[in-house]
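Morning!

This is the sequence you dropped in the shared folder:
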Amino acid sequence: MSTFMANANNIERRWFVIDAAGKPLGKTAVKAAEILRGKHRPEFTPHADCGEFVIIVNAAKATLSGKKLEQKYYRHHSGYIGGLKEVQYKTLMATRPEMAMELAVKGMLPHNSLGDKAFTRLHVYAGADHKQAAQQPTLVD
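The structure's back. Tokens below.
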């Protein structure tokens, strides 16, 4: 008996919408990463790109539990001496909630070319409206 190996050329990609309103940021990101990777499909193959498209709406209404709004920071470095930049998640969620959701999902994808390709299929919006209505996306609970 031979093992089935999915081929990226034979995968029909569907579109999914995840509503993040009132849901934890991390749990929403986990669901999105699973769909982007294709792990929900029976023909999932770890080394092949089997994932689908994901639209996350209402990212501004996603919640963080505990004291994460005050204690969690997004840190990045400019590369220069003393170039560490810190942004508190309270500020990040108020100004750029799409970025907070993208950072969470990107951290859950593989850190290689497969993850980079999957990340391009993610679309995050702070509000309830999105531009991909023509693709007739399916709502994920």
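Headline: The longest strand covers residues 15-19.

More detail when I'm at my desk.
O.
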